[in-house]
Design goal:
The structure is a homodimer of 222-residue chains.
Chain A lengths: L2 E3 L5 E3 H4 L3 H22 L2 H8 L3 H7 L3 H19 L11 H18 L1 H12 L7 H19 L13 H23 L10 H18 L6
Chain B binds a DNA duplex (30 and 30 nucleotides) through helix 3 and helix 4.
Chain lengths: 222, 222
DNA sequence: ACCCCTCTTGACCACTCTGGTCTAAAGTGT
DNA sequence: ACACTTTAGACCAGAGTGGTCAAGAGGGGT
Protein backbone atom coordinates (compact mmCIF):
# COMPACT_ATOMS: atom_id res chain seq x y z
CA UNK A 1 0.00 0.00 0.00
CA UNK A 2 1.59 3.23 -1.06
CA UNK A 3 -1.29 5.67 -0.77
CA UNK A 4 -2.71 7.02 2.43
CA UNK A 5 -6.23 8.22 2.85
CA UNK A 6 -6.84 11.38 4.83
CA UNK A 7 -9.92 12.20 6.86
CA UNK A 8 -11.36 14.03 3.85
CA UNK A 9 -10.92 10.78 1.91
CA UNK A 10 -8.57 12.57 -0.41
CA UNK A 11 -5.87 10.48 -1.98
CA UNK A 12 -2.39 11.73 -1.24
CA UNK A 13 0.29 10.32 -3.49
CA UNK A 14 2.92 9.26 -1.00
CA UNK A 15 5.74 8.21 -3.34
CA UNK A 16 5.33 11.50 -5.11
CA UNK A 17 5.72 13.45 -1.88
CA UNK A 18 8.96 11.62 -1.11
CA UNK A 19 10.50 12.64 -4.42
CA UNK A 20 13.43 15.03 -4.56
CA UNK A 21 11.85 18.48 -4.75
CA UNK A 22 13.51 19.31 -8.07
CA UNK A 23 11.96 16.28 -9.74
CA UNK A 24 8.63 17.03 -8.12
CA UNK A 25 8.82 20.53 -9.51
CA UNK A 26 9.67 19.29 -12.99
CA UNK A 27 6.58 17.12 -13.02
CA UNK A 28 4.30 19.76 -11.55
CA UNK A 29 5.51 22.40 -13.96
CA UNK A 30 5.21 20.17 -16.99
CA UNK A 31 1.70 19.18 -15.97
CA UNK A 32 0.53 22.69 -15.08
CA UNK A 33 1.76 23.92 -18.43
CA UNK A 34 0.17 21.13 -20.43
CA UNK A 35 -3.21 21.56 -18.72
CA UNK A 36 -3.02 25.34 -18.96
CA UNK A 37 -2.36 25.24 -22.67
CA UNK A 38 -4.86 22.56 -23.59
CA UNK A 39 -7.54 22.26 -20.96
CA UNK A 40 -8.28 19.05 -19.13
CA UNK A 41 -9.61 16.89 -21.93
CA UNK A 42 -6.97 17.69 -24.49
CA UNK A 43 -3.96 17.76 -22.24
CA UNK A 44 -1.75 14.80 -23.08
CA UNK A 45 -0.17 12.67 -20.42
CA UNK A 46 2.43 11.68 -23.02
CA UNK A 47 3.49 15.30 -23.40
CA UNK A 48 3.65 15.70 -19.63
CA UNK A 49 6.00 12.78 -19.07
CA UNK A 50 8.10 13.88 -22.02
CA UNK A 51 8.60 17.40 -20.69
CA UNK A 52 8.99 16.19 -17.12
CA UNK A 53 11.60 13.72 -18.40
CA UNK A 54 10.18 10.72 -16.61
CA UNK A 55 8.93 7.40 -17.92
CA UNK A 56 5.30 7.07 -18.79
CA UNK A 57 4.70 4.57 -16.02
CA UNK A 58 5.84 6.90 -13.30
CA UNK A 59 3.02 9.35 -13.77
CA UNK A 60 0.51 6.60 -13.07
CA UNK A 61 2.61 5.32 -10.23
CA UNK A 62 2.57 8.73 -8.54
CA UNK A 63 -1.04 9.55 -9.39
CA UNK A 64 -4.07 7.35 -9.72
CA UNK A 65 -4.87 8.64 -13.18
CA UNK A 66 -5.08 11.81 -15.24
CA UNK A 67 -7.92 13.14 -13.13
CA UNK A 68 -6.04 12.49 -9.90
CA UNK A 69 -3.11 14.47 -11.22
CA UNK A 70 -5.39 17.31 -12.25
CA UNK A 71 -7.02 17.51 -8.85
CA UNK A 72 -3.64 17.45 -7.19
CA UNK A 73 -2.57 20.40 -9.33
CA UNK A 74 -5.62 22.43 -8.42
CA UNK A 75 -4.92 21.81 -4.77
CA UNK A 76 -1.28 22.75 -5.27
CA UNK A 77 -2.16 25.90 -7.18
CA UNK A 78 -4.61 27.11 -4.56
CA UNK A 79 -2.03 26.59 -1.83
CA UNK A 80 0.71 28.60 -3.51
CA UNK A 81 -1.68 31.35 -4.52
CA UNK A 82 -2.88 31.73 -0.96
CA UNK A 83 0.61 31.59 0.46
CA UNK A 84 2.53 33.63 -2.09
CA UNK A 85 -0.08 36.00 -3.41
CA UNK A 86 -3.05 36.61 -1.18
CA UNK A 87 -1.09 36.55 2.09
CA UNK A 88 1.33 39.14 0.71
CA UNK A 89 -1.31 41.82 0.46
CA UNK A 90 -0.88 44.49 3.08
CA UNK A 91 -4.31 45.27 4.54
CA UNK A 92 -3.34 48.30 6.58
CA UNK A 93 -3.46 50.45 3.47
CA UNK A 94 -6.93 51.97 3.46
CA UNK A 95 -6.59 54.06 0.29
CA UNK A 96 -8.39 52.04 -2.42
CA UNK A 97 -6.12 53.08 -5.24
CA UNK A 98 -3.00 52.36 -3.20
CA UNK A 99 -4.40 49.04 -2.06
CA UNK A 100 -5.20 48.02 -5.61
CA UNK A 101 -1.84 49.27 -6.80
CA UNK A 102 -0.17 47.04 -4.24
CA UNK A 103 -2.31 44.09 -5.30
CA UNK A 104 -1.28 44.68 -8.90
CA UNK A 105 2.39 44.66 -7.96
CA UNK A 106 2.08 41.47 -5.93
CA UNK A 107 0.05 39.85 -8.66
CA UNK A 108 2.55 40.75 -11.36
CA UNK A 109 5.43 39.47 -9.29
CA UNK A 110 3.57 36.26 -8.62
CA UNK A 111 2.70 35.89 -12.28
CA UNK A 112 6.30 36.17 -13.37
CA UNK A 113 7.62 33.90 -10.69
CA UNK A 114 4.91 31.28 -11.19
CA UNK A 115 3.65 31.67 -14.73
CA UNK A 116 2.51 28.08 -14.93
CA UNK A 117 0.35 28.24 -11.83
CA UNK A 118 -1.04 31.57 -12.89
CA UNK A 119 -2.01 30.38 -16.36
CA UNK A 120 -3.24 27.06 -15.07
CA UNK A 121 -5.71 28.60 -12.67
CA UNK A 122 -7.10 31.20 -15.04
CA UNK A 123 -7.58 28.67 -17.81
CA UNK A 124 -9.13 26.20 -15.40
CA UNK A 125 -11.95 28.66 -14.83
CA UNK A 126 -12.62 28.74 -18.57
CA UNK A 127 -12.83 24.96 -18.80
CA UNK A 128 -16.49 24.05 -18.86
CA UNK A 129 -17.83 20.54 -18.35
CA UNK A 130 -15.50 19.55 -15.59
CA UNK A 131 -16.97 18.92 -12.21
CA UNK A 132 -14.59 19.01 -9.32
CA UNK A 133 -14.90 17.16 -6.05
CA UNK A 134 -16.62 19.11 -3.35
CA UNK A 135 -13.53 19.87 -1.28
CA UNK A 136 -11.86 21.56 -4.24
CA UNK A 137 -14.94 23.57 -5.15
CA UNK A 138 -15.02 24.71 -1.55
CA UNK A 139 -11.38 25.73 -1.50
CA UNK A 140 -11.78 27.61 -4.77
CA UNK A 141 -14.75 29.44 -3.33
CA UNK A 142 -12.81 30.37 -0.23
CA UNK A 143 -9.89 31.61 -2.30
CA UNK A 144 -12.26 33.74 -4.38
CA UNK A 145 -13.80 35.21 -1.28
CA UNK A 146 -10.45 35.92 0.31
CA UNK A 147 -9.40 37.74 -2.87
CA UNK A 148 -12.51 39.87 -2.83
CA UNK A 149 -12.12 40.79 0.81
CA UNK A 150 -8.51 41.82 0.17
CA UNK A 151 -9.87 44.18 -2.44
CA UNK A 152 -12.75 45.83 -0.67
CA UNK A 153 -12.33 45.35 3.07
CA UNK A 154 -11.52 48.28 5.31
CA UNK A 155 -11.38 50.84 2.54
CA UNK A 156 -11.57 54.51 3.44
CA UNK A 157 -14.64 55.78 1.63
CA UNK A 158 -14.10 59.37 2.67
CA UNK A 159 -11.30 59.87 0.17
CA UNK A 160 -13.72 59.77 -2.75
CA UNK A 161 -15.36 62.89 -4.07
CA UNK A 162 -18.95 63.12 -3.02
CA UNK A 163 -20.71 63.69 -6.33
CA UNK A 164 -20.21 60.12 -7.57
CA UNK A 165 -21.30 56.65 -6.49
CA UNK A 166 -18.36 55.08 -4.66
CA UNK A 167 -19.24 51.52 -5.66
CA UNK A 168 -19.18 52.50 -9.30
CA UNK A 169 -15.92 54.36 -8.78
CA UNK A 170 -14.44 51.13 -7.40
CA UNK A 171 -15.36 49.31 -10.57
CA UNK A 172 -14.03 52.03 -12.86
CA UNK A 173 -10.72 52.04 -11.02
CA UNK A 174 -10.58 48.25 -11.05
CA UNK A 175 -11.25 48.10 -14.79
CA UNK A 176 -8.61 50.75 -15.39
CA UNK A 177 -5.88 48.94 -13.52
CA UNK A 178 -6.81 45.54 -14.89
CA UNK A 179 -6.87 47.05 -18.36
CA UNK A 180 -3.38 48.46 -17.95
CA UNK A 181 -2.20 45.14 -16.63
CA UNK A 182 -3.72 43.16 -19.48
CA UNK A 183 -2.38 45.48 -22.16
CA UNK A 184 1.06 45.29 -20.60
CA UNK A 185 1.03 41.52 -20.24
CA UNK A 186 -0.05 41.27 -23.84
CA UNK A 187 2.68 43.58 -25.02
CA UNK A 188 5.39 41.74 -23.11
CA UNK A 189 4.10 38.29 -23.95
CA UNK A 190 6.82 35.98 -25.17
CA UNK A 191 9.64 38.18 -23.99
CA UNK A 192 12.01 36.92 -21.36
CA UNK A 193 11.03 38.90 -18.35
CA UNK A 194 14.28 38.24 -16.51
CA UNK A 195 16.16 40.32 -19.06
CA UNK A 196 13.61 43.08 -18.95
CA UNK A 197 13.65 46.26 -16.94
CA UNK A 198 10.09 46.83 -15.81
CA UNK A 199 10.75 50.15 -14.10
CA UNK A 200 9.54 52.37 -16.95
CA UNK A 201 6.27 50.45 -16.94
CA UNK A 202 5.86 50.94 -13.23
CA UNK A 203 6.54 54.66 -13.65
CA UNK A 204 3.86 54.78 -16.30
CA UNK A 205 1.53 52.84 -14.04
CA UNK A 206 2.04 55.32 -11.22
CA UNK A 207 1.22 58.17 -13.57
CA UNK A 208 -2.08 56.50 -14.30
CA UNK A 209 -2.67 56.13 -10.58
CA UNK A 210 -2.03 59.82 -10.08
CA UNK A 211 -4.68 60.63 -12.66
CA UNK A 212 -7.14 58.29 -11.00
CA UNK A 213 -6.55 60.06 -7.71
CA UNK A 214 -6.98 63.46 -9.29
CA UNK A 215 -10.22 62.46 -10.90
CA UNK A 216 -11.88 60.20 -8.32
CA UNK A 217 -10.69 61.63 -5.00
CA UNK A 218 -11.63 64.86 -3.28
CA UNK A 219 -9.41 67.83 -3.99
CA UNK A 220 -7.48 68.76 -0.90
CA UNK A 221 -8.14 72.50 -0.76
CA UNK A 222 -10.23 73.74 2.16
CA UNK B 1 -12.24 23.25 -64.03
CA UNK B 2 -14.34 24.56 -61.22
CA UNK B 3 -12.03 27.07 -59.60
CA UNK B 4 -11.12 30.45 -60.95
CA UNK B 5 -7.95 32.30 -60.18
CA UNK B 6 -8.13 36.02 -59.55
CA UNK B 7 -5.41 38.54 -60.22
CA UNK B 8 -4.15 38.15 -56.66
CA UNK B 9 -3.85 34.43 -57.40
CA UNK B 10 -6.38 33.76 -54.68
CA UNK B 11 -8.48 30.67 -55.11
CA UNK B 12 -12.20 31.40 -55.17
CA UNK B 13 -14.37 28.36 -54.67
CA UNK B 14 -16.89 28.69 -57.47
CA UNK B 15 -19.24 25.81 -56.68
CA UNK B 16 -19.42 27.11 -53.15
CA UNK B 17 -20.44 30.55 -54.30
CA UNK B 18 -23.27 29.07 -56.37
CA UNK B 19 -24.74 27.31 -53.37
CA UNK B 20 -28.08 28.36 -51.94
CA UNK B 21 -27.25 31.03 -49.35
CA UNK B 22 -28.83 29.10 -46.49
CA UNK B 23 -26.55 26.13 -47.10
CA UNK B 24 -23.56 28.42 -47.51
CA UNK B 25 -24.38 29.98 -44.18
CA UNK B 26 -24.73 26.61 -42.49
CA UNK B 27 -21.25 25.64 -43.64
CA UNK B 28 -19.69 28.98 -42.78
CA UNK B 29 -21.26 29.04 -39.34
CA UNK B 30 -20.27 25.49 -38.54
CA UNK B 31 -16.70 26.16 -39.65
CA UNK B 32 -16.36 29.51 -37.87
CA UNK B 33 -17.59 27.92 -34.69
CA UNK B 34 -15.30 24.91 -34.90
CA UNK B 35 -12.24 27.05 -35.60
CA UNK B 36 -13.18 29.56 -32.93
CA UNK B 37 -13.55 26.89 -30.30
CA UNK B 38 -10.47 24.86 -31.16
CA UNK B 39 -7.99 26.95 -33.08
CA UNK B 40 -6.73 26.00 -36.52
CA UNK B 41 -4.77 22.85 -35.76
CA UNK B 42 -7.32 21.20 -33.54
CA UNK B 43 -10.44 22.14 -35.43
CA UNK B 44 -11.92 19.00 -36.95
CA UNK B 45 -13.23 18.90 -40.49
CA UNK B 46 -15.36 15.95 -39.43
CA UNK B 47 -17.12 18.10 -36.84
CA UNK B 48 -17.63 20.84 -39.39
CA UNK B 49 -19.35 18.62 -41.94
CA UNK B 50 -21.44 17.05 -39.21
CA UNK B 51 -22.74 20.36 -37.91
CA UNK B 52 -23.12 21.77 -41.41
CA UNK B 53 -25.08 18.64 -42.31
CA UNK B 54 -23.17 17.94 -45.49
CA UNK B 55 -21.17 14.94 -46.62
CA UNK B 56 -17.49 14.83 -45.87
CA UNK B 57 -16.60 14.95 -49.54
CA UNK B 58 -18.42 18.21 -50.13
CA UNK B 59 -16.14 20.26 -47.90
CA UNK B 60 -13.16 19.25 -50.02
CA UNK B 61 -15.15 19.76 -53.17
CA UNK B 62 -15.93 23.36 -52.17
CA UNK B 63 -12.52 24.12 -50.68
CA UNK B 64 -9.08 22.94 -51.63
CA UNK B 65 -8.29 21.76 -48.12
CA UNK B 66 -8.61 22.72 -44.47
CA UNK B 67 -6.29 25.67 -44.92
CA UNK B 68 -8.21 26.95 -47.93
CA UNK B 69 -11.39 26.90 -45.87
CA UNK B 70 -9.67 28.74 -43.03
CA UNK B 71 -8.37 31.47 -45.29
CA UNK B 72 -11.79 31.84 -46.87
CA UNK B 73 -13.30 32.31 -43.41
CA UNK B 74 -10.81 35.01 -42.46
CA UNK B 75 -11.63 36.85 -45.64
CA UNK B 76 -15.34 36.44 -44.96
CA UNK B 77 -14.99 37.61 -41.36
CA UNK B 78 -13.06 40.73 -42.30
CA UNK B 79 -15.67 41.64 -44.88
CA UNK B 80 -18.63 41.41 -42.55
CA UNK B 81 -16.81 43.20 -39.76
CA UNK B 82 -15.99 46.08 -42.03
CA UNK B 83 -19.48 46.23 -43.47
CA UNK B 84 -21.59 45.59 -40.39
CA UNK B 85 -19.44 46.94 -37.59
CA UNK B 86 -16.83 49.49 -38.59
CA UNK B 87 -18.98 51.21 -41.19
CA UNK B 88 -21.78 51.65 -38.65
CA UNK B 89 -19.74 53.94 -36.45
CA UNK B 90 -20.92 57.50 -36.64
CA UNK B 91 -17.87 59.75 -36.92
CA UNK B 92 -19.59 63.08 -36.48
CA UNK B 93 -19.68 62.56 -32.72
CA UNK B 94 -16.60 64.35 -31.41
CA UNK B 95 -17.12 63.66 -27.71
CA UNK B 96 -14.73 60.80 -26.91
CA UNK B 97 -16.94 59.16 -24.31
CA UNK B 98 -19.98 59.38 -26.55
CA UNK B 99 -18.03 58.07 -29.50
CA UNK B 100 -16.77 55.14 -27.49
CA UNK B 101 -20.20 54.53 -26.06
CA UNK B 102 -21.57 54.30 -29.57
CA UNK B 103 -18.79 51.93 -30.58
CA UNK B 104 -19.62 49.73 -27.61
CA UNK B 105 -23.26 49.59 -28.63
CA UNK B 106 -22.47 48.74 -32.24
CA UNK B 107 -19.94 46.16 -31.14
CA UNK B 108 -22.35 44.48 -28.73
CA UNK B 109 -25.07 44.38 -31.38
CA UNK B 110 -22.64 42.91 -33.87
CA UNK B 111 -21.43 40.38 -31.33
CA UNK B 112 -24.93 39.12 -30.62
CA UNK B 113 -25.95 39.02 -34.25
CA UNK B 114 -22.72 37.36 -35.40
CA UNK B 115 -21.31 35.55 -32.41
CA UNK B 116 -19.43 33.07 -34.57
CA UNK B 117 -17.59 35.70 -36.59
CA UNK B 118 -16.84 37.66 -33.47
CA UNK B 119 -15.40 34.70 -31.59
CA UNK B 120 -13.61 33.42 -34.66
CA UNK B 121 -11.69 36.62 -35.20
CA UNK B 122 -10.71 37.20 -31.60
CA UNK B 123 -9.51 33.64 -31.17
CA UNK B 124 -7.66 33.78 -34.47
CA UNK B 125 -5.46 36.50 -33.02
CA UNK B 126 -4.54 34.23 -30.14
CA UNK B 127 -3.55 31.40 -32.45
CA UNK B 128 0.23 31.45 -32.71
CA UNK B 129 2.23 29.55 -35.29
CA UNK B 130 -0.04 30.18 -38.21
CA UNK B 131 1.26 32.30 -41.01
CA UNK B 132 -1.28 33.78 -43.29
CA UNK B 133 -0.85 34.71 -46.94
CA UNK B 134 0.23 38.25 -47.49
CA UNK B 135 -3.09 39.55 -48.80
CA UNK B 136 -4.85 38.42 -45.63
CA UNK B 137 -2.20 39.91 -43.34
CA UNK B 138 -2.63 43.13 -45.24
CA UNK B 139 -6.40 43.17 -44.91
CA UNK B 140 -6.16 42.42 -41.20
CA UNK B 141 -3.76 45.29 -40.79
CA UNK B 142 -6.08 47.63 -42.64
CA UNK B 143 -9.02 46.54 -40.52
CA UNK B 144 -7.01 47.15 -37.35
CA UNK B 145 -6.04 50.59 -38.54
CA UNK B 146 -9.58 51.46 -39.52
CA UNK B 147 -10.75 50.44 -36.05
CA UNK B 148 -8.16 52.62 -34.38
CA UNK B 149 -9.00 55.65 -36.49
CA UNK B 150 -12.69 55.21 -35.64
CA UNK B 151 -11.65 55.45 -32.02
CA UNK B 152 -9.34 58.41 -31.98
CA UNK B 153 -9.96 60.47 -35.11
CA UNK B 154 -11.52 63.90 -34.87
CA UNK B 155 -11.95 63.86 -31.12
CA UNK B 156 -12.63 67.12 -29.32
CA UNK B 157 -9.75 67.46 -26.87
CA UNK B 158 -11.11 70.61 -25.29
CA UNK B 159 -13.76 68.71 -23.34
CA UNK B 160 -11.15 67.20 -21.05
CA UNK B 161 -10.08 68.89 -17.85
CA UNK B 162 -6.71 70.49 -18.17
CA UNK B 163 -4.85 69.06 -15.20
CA UNK B 164 -4.51 65.58 -16.71
CA UNK B 165 -2.80 64.04 -19.74
CA UNK B 166 -5.48 63.54 -22.38
CA UNK B 167 -3.80 60.51 -23.96
CA UNK B 168 -3.78 58.78 -20.61
CA UNK B 169 -7.38 59.77 -20.02
CA UNK B 170 -8.26 58.07 -23.32
CA UNK B 171 -6.72 54.85 -22.11
CA UNK B 172 -8.40 54.99 -18.72
CA UNK B 173 -11.78 55.54 -20.34
CA UNK B 174 -11.13 52.78 -22.86
CA UNK B 175 -10.14 50.31 -20.13
CA UNK B 176 -13.22 51.25 -18.13
CA UNK B 177 -15.65 50.65 -20.95
CA UNK B 178 -13.93 47.50 -22.14
CA UNK B 179 -13.90 46.26 -18.56
CA UNK B 180 -17.62 46.83 -18.21
CA UNK B 181 -18.21 45.09 -21.50
CA UNK B 182 -16.08 42.08 -20.57
CA UNK B 183 -17.65 41.66 -17.17
CA UNK B 184 -21.09 41.87 -18.73
CA UNK B 185 -20.30 39.41 -21.51
CA UNK B 186 -18.93 37.05 -18.93
CA UNK B 187 -21.96 37.35 -16.73
CA UNK B 188 -24.38 36.75 -19.59
CA UNK B 189 -22.34 33.98 -21.17
CA UNK B 190 -24.40 30.97 -21.99
CA UNK B 191 -27.71 32.75 -21.66
CA UNK B 192 -29.97 33.09 -24.64
CA UNK B 193 -29.66 36.72 -25.48
CA UNK B 194 -32.84 36.78 -27.55
CA UNK B 195 -34.90 36.19 -24.43
CA UNK B 196 -33.01 38.77 -22.46
CA UNK B 197 -33.86 42.37 -21.82
CA UNK B 198 -30.60 44.28 -21.98
CA UNK B 199 -32.08 47.67 -21.08
CA UNK B 200 -31.13 47.57 -17.40
CA UNK B 201 -27.55 46.90 -18.41
CA UNK B 202 -27.55 49.81 -20.81
CA UNK B 203 -28.94 52.05 -18.07
CA UNK B 204 -26.15 50.94 -15.79
CA UNK B 205 -23.64 51.53 -18.58
CA UNK B 206 -24.90 55.08 -19.05
CA UNK B 207 -24.51 55.72 -15.33
CA UNK B 208 -20.88 54.74 -15.63
CA UNK B 209 -20.52 57.08 -18.60
CA UNK B 210 -21.97 59.91 -16.55
CA UNK B 211 -19.33 59.32 -13.88
CA UNK B 212 -16.57 59.26 -16.48
CA UNK B 213 -17.79 62.60 -17.78
CA UNK B 214 -17.97 64.07 -14.29
CA UNK B 215 -14.46 62.97 -13.51
CA UNK B 216 -12.57 63.42 -16.78
CA UNK B 217 -14.30 66.40 -18.38
CA UNK B 218 -14.22 70.04 -17.42
CA UNK B 219 -16.91 71.23 -15.07
CA UNK B 220 -19.23 73.57 -16.90
CA UNK B 221 -19.38 76.44 -14.42
CA UNK B 222 -17.87 79.73 -15.56
C1' DA C 1 24.69 -14.69 -1.50
C1' DC C 2 19.98 -14.01 -1.23
C1' DC C 3 15.52 -11.77 -0.51
C1' DC C 4 12.33 -8.06 -0.54
C1' DC C 5 10.70 -3.86 -1.42
C1' DT C 6 10.49 0.50 -3.82
C1' DC C 7 11.36 2.85 -7.94
C1' DT C 8 11.77 3.08 -12.87
C1' DT C 9 11.25 2.30 -17.81
C1' DG C 10 9.07 2.15 -22.28
C1' DA C 11 6.90 -1.26 -25.30
C1' DC C 12 2.40 -2.23 -25.84
C1' DC C 13 -2.81 -2.20 -25.90
C1' DA C 14 -7.23 -1.20 -27.92
C1' DC C 15 -9.30 2.59 -29.25
C1' DT C 16 -10.44 7.17 -31.31
C1' DC C 17 -9.73 10.63 -34.40
C1' DT C 18 -7.21 12.99 -38.17
C1' DG C 19 -7.25 15.35 -43.12
C1' DG C 20 -8.11 13.83 -47.29
C1' DT C 21 -9.56 10.50 -51.37
C1' DC C 22 -12.44 8.15 -54.32
C1' DT C 23 -16.17 5.45 -56.09
C1' DA C 24 -20.54 5.28 -57.19
C1' DA C 25 -24.76 7.30 -57.55
C1' DA C 26 -28.19 11.08 -58.02
C1' DG C 27 -29.64 15.37 -60.29
C1' DT C 28 -29.91 18.54 -64.06
C1' DG C 29 -30.04 20.37 -68.74
C1' DT C 30 -30.37 19.47 -73.51
C1' DA D 1 -29.61 9.19 -74.26
C1' DC D 2 -25.72 11.69 -72.88
C1' DA D 3 -22.65 14.86 -70.52
C1' DC D 4 -21.80 17.32 -66.72
C1' DT D 5 -22.13 18.85 -61.86
C1' DT D 6 -23.22 17.77 -57.27
C1' DT D 7 -23.65 14.64 -53.50
C1' DA D 8 -22.67 11.10 -49.74
C1' DG D 9 -19.94 8.54 -46.90
C1' DA D 10 -16.92 4.30 -46.71
C1' DC D 11 -12.36 4.12 -46.55
C1' DC D 12 -7.31 5.10 -45.89
C1' DA D 13 -2.84 5.34 -43.41
C1' DG D 14 -1.08 7.58 -39.79
C1' DA D 15 -0.94 9.77 -35.37
C1' DG D 16 -2.24 10.06 -30.81
C1' DT D 17 -5.06 8.60 -26.55
C1' DG D 18 -5.05 7.09 -21.30
C1' DG D 19 -3.52 3.43 -19.11
C1' DT D 20 -1.05 -1.33 -18.14
C1' DC D 21 2.49 -4.38 -17.26
C1' DA D 22 6.58 -7.27 -17.44
C1' DA D 23 11.05 -6.65 -16.60
C1' DG D 24 14.68 -4.91 -14.36
C1' DA D 25 17.64 -1.56 -11.24
C1' DG D 26 19.05 -0.15 -6.74
C1' DG D 27 19.64 -0.66 -2.00
C1' DG D 28 19.13 -2.34 2.83
C1' DG D 29 18.74 -6.34 5.81
C1' DT D 30 20.11 -10.93 6.84
Amino acid sequence: MNKIITKESQVIPQPFNNLEPSKQKRIIDAALKEFAENGYERASTNQIVKHAEIGKGMLFYYFENKQGLYHYLIDYAISTIEREYLKQIYMEERDFIERFSQITEVKMTYHYENPNVSNFISNMYLDDELDLPEHLEKRLGEMMEEGLSKLYEDIDYTLFREDIDVEKAFQLIRWSMEGYQNDLLNELKGQNIALLNLDPYWDEFYEYLAILKTTFYKTEEE
